[in-house]
Task: structure prediction
Amino acid sequence: MSASAHPNLFSSPDHDRYFEDYISGAVHLLGEFKIVEDEMLAYAREFDPQEIHIDREQAAEGPFQGLIASGWYTGALMMRIFARNFLSNVSSRASPGIDGLRWLAPVRADDVLRVRVSILETRRSASKPDRGIVKSLIEVINQDDQLVMDIQGVNIIACDPARQGK
Result:
């Protein structure tokens, strides 16, 4: 099986996985979520109160011809799936940040979005050999197979103590 055809190896939450389990080139489908209008609006009213996110009439006349979800809301929902199904509570140490974030298409109420992660690069830390760096492309794709958001993330992952020195 090629690396790009890996099954959902990380589909179980909080699995005991370590840096050695993140394989460069692997692609993982992590799960999906549905955009619920009431939640979408509540989030926007509190955190991103732009008219395109909260005012149905003004949004209808705007560039997207209707309400759209805040990109930050989409990102927050993506992060829940990413944290539960890709990162591991036993080994995830931190993230120094992201290398890119793009919102590529509008997200609307009732859209069903899925999260796909491609591991771009893995390398052991030169300064702290008990951990590694995992760079990933995280994609959010709608029910029409349209890419709506992507992020290039970086995560620090602990190495497996049982596999040290092997």
